[in-house]
Amino acid sequence: MSRTIPFLLAFICLFLIMLEGTLANVLTDISFLPSDWQVTSHFLLIFVIFITIFFDQRNTYYSFLFAVLFGLFIDILYTPVIGIYLFVYAVAIYIVRNLMKWLHANFYVTVLMMILGVFTADILAYFLYNIIQIHNMGWNDYFFHRLLPTTGWNVGIGIVFYPLIYKLLRKWQYIKFEQKD
Amino acid sequence: MSKRSNLTLVEDFVHDSVGWLQQIVNEPIHFTTTFFSNINEIKNVYSENQKLKSQLEEIRQVEYANQELTKEIEELESILGKTETDFLQNFNEIQASVVARSKDQWFKQITINKGTQDGVEPNMAVISGEGMIGKVQTSSPFTSTVLLLNGFDRSNRISVNVDAEETQTDMSGFIVGYDEETNLLLLELNENNDSLKAGQLVFSSGLGGVFPKGLEIGKVTEVTEGRYSLTKVAYVEPSANFESLHHVIVIDRGMITTEEAETLAEEARLAEEARKAEEEQQNAENTEEADES
User: Fold this and answer.
1) Which residues cross the membrane (chain A) (predicted)?
2) Is the minimum CB–CB distance between B137 and chain A shorter than 8 Å?
3) Which residues of B17-30 are buried (b: 16+ CB within 10 A; e: fewer)?
4) Would the CB atoms of A78 and B98 count as touching at under 8 Å?
5) ipTM of this complex
6) How close is the nearest chain B Cα to the Cα of A178, in Å?
7) Residues B63 and B199 in one domain
8) Would you call B14 and A77 a contact, using CB atoms and an 8 Å cutoff?
9) Same domain for B138 and B103
10) CB within 8 A of B214, min separation 6: which ones?
11) What residue in A sits closest to B181 (Cα-Cα)?
12) B2 to A81: CB separation less than 8 angstroms, yes or no
């Protein structure tokens, strides 16, 4: 059992990537949201932040591995430029991981980390895509029409699924690292 | 945007394996969303039905006229000795479903569930029921990505005709880009033509060498002067709705495209060179033989 857990986590990550793409097709079509809002799903990032907080030990780097590997998948699947999401997710996880050395793993810290992670990743992606001239969106426009709705959406989903993922990861962490067989 | 249309093996593999799984994820979500929109639509069913019934008679007449015209065209074609692929309008349709959209709205890109195995190649036009929506950007064996019209820039122009009712000849021009603020396409006419008016329909002209002729693109909404007042610039409202896309049709142009023509020419050139080299070799051998004797 303890060997299959990283693969189970990877499978969930893969599922979340697919969900991001499928939901993007639905989210653009929702009529009650203002039409100039851009809501981007970062479910993978949210889940990997959960892994960083509740699963990874000091000497394991599963969250990094998943952020880099599935960030690359997102680049290949959904964008013509390879490397941006790989980089921004890795940076976000690096920051969260280092901060978690000083903080306790509880609900409020998790919400804070989700907000921080989404902010870091999305703002970095904004600047990188701006540099290579994918878009020319002004900062104000970006902040109010994309960053805030995106953060709200992702952190909201994260909070809703918090109890479920928390229980699951704690259990798997116990099986993987503490259980002696 | 990247200019490559050929993917590496790894990218192909990721696209195909995830695309296949994605269809399974897509099914329940698509079901739920269509379920709710169906409920919304049920409210208007009766009035819509009445309207459709009245249109049915009209369609029957059009269909009859269509049949007669097709017969006539076929006869004329046979007289001229032209085959089907000689016409710019001809194309094959490949039906496809949308399995995903780029999760980042900065990329106007969707993924469809048909690839090179079904005959989808890069640069083919893609339409929905209402009109043209974009072109195939890259294709893997079983999935392809489509660049939507609102992601087009100056490097992906479309050669178009504007349908003017009063005159016999259509005005020709290019779709040169997309205006993010107004959500309209930009049309530049080749010559300064005063008969360009709001409300006229814009079609692909087939002269760009990539798309077939006659795909509906949109309707002119506003006409302004271009730079230096030498050309007219018009804003075109796209016919298709890029926001709600579920089923699309990939258009495989019947007539040879410029790209195919280039590769064919290249192949012919190589074959010619090989033939010449062979001939020279044979000549050399012949002279050698002659020397020996």
Assistant:
1) 40-56, 61-78, 84-100, 107-132, 152-169
2) yes
3) ebbeebbebbeeeb
4) no
5) 0.82
6) 34
7) no
8) yes
9) yes
10) B88, B89, B203, B204, B206
11) A36
12) yes
Residues B191, B96, single domain; the answer is no
The pLDDT of residue B1: 42
Q: Mean pLDDT, consecutive 10-residue segments, chain A of 181 residues?
A: 87 91 80 79 94 89 92 90 92 94 90 94 92 86 91 94 93 84 56
Q: Would you say residue B88 has pLDDT above 80?
A: no
Residue-level pLDDT at A113:
93
Q: Verify whether the Cβ–Cβ distance A78 to B21 is below 8 Å.
A: no
Per-residue confidence band for B5, with pLDDT thresholds at 50, 70 and 90: low
Residue B158, classed as helix, strand or coil, is: strand
Does the distance separating the beta carbons of A79 and B104 come in below 8 Å? yes
Residue in A28, A38, A78 nearest the CB of B109: A78
Mean pLDDT value of segment B267-283: 89
Amino acid at B142: F
Predicted local distance difference test score (pLDDT) of residue B2: 44
Same domain, B52 and B178: no
Give, as one character, the DSSP assignment of residue B3.
Answer: -
Same domain, B177 and B63: no
Task: Indicate the helix (H) or strand (E) that contains B186.
Answer: strand B184-189
Full residue range of the structural domain in which residue A165 is found: 5-28+39-178
The verdict on a CB contact (< 8 Å) between A77 and B21 is no
Q: How many residues does chain A have?
A: 181
pLDDT digits (tens, 9 = 90+) for A68-112: 999 999 998 888 888 899 999 999 999 999 999 899 888 999 999
- CA A103 to chain B, closest CA, distance in angstroms equals 31
